[in-house]
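Need a sequence for this fold. Nothing fancy.
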């Protein structure tokens, strides 16, 4: 059974750090792009993405503060978030693009989401 299992969310004070991880489980053959999105009321945006080859893309407001990385052997993507701000508060969702596994291929697959709250 295919799953994206996220972990690492929580409550942190402004200026603090959190690390998110997302592991794809199942019989995975390949994943092209893995990324993190976040959702607030009325808005969903791409935070960061990374290709299988390691090319990265960041939303402007997180550049220099967040770092995305992945371990292809473990089908896992990470998001290191530093210098967090209250406006980073959101539900963060992991996404896997162009994923092929034992039952076929899907263009996009989502995790269940993890809450990140930045507040004093």
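Here you go.
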């Amino acid at each position: 059974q295919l799953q994206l299992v996220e972990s690492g969310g929580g409550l942190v004070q402004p200026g603090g750090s959190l690390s998110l991880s997302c592991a794809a489980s199942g019989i995975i053959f390949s994943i092209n792009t893995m990324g993190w999105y976040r959702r607030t009321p009325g808005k969903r945006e791409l935070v960061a993405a990374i290709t299988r080859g390691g090319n990265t893309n960041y939303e402007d407001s997180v550049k220099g503060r967040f770092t995305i990385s992945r371990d292809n052997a473990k089908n896992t993507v990470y998001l290191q978030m530093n210098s967090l701000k209250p406006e980073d508060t959101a539900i963060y969702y992991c996404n896997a693009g162009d994923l092929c596994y034992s039952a076929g291929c899907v263009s996009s697959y989502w995790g269940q989401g993890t809450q990140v709250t930045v507040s004093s």
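For context: The CA atoms of residues 14 and 45 lie 21 Å apart.
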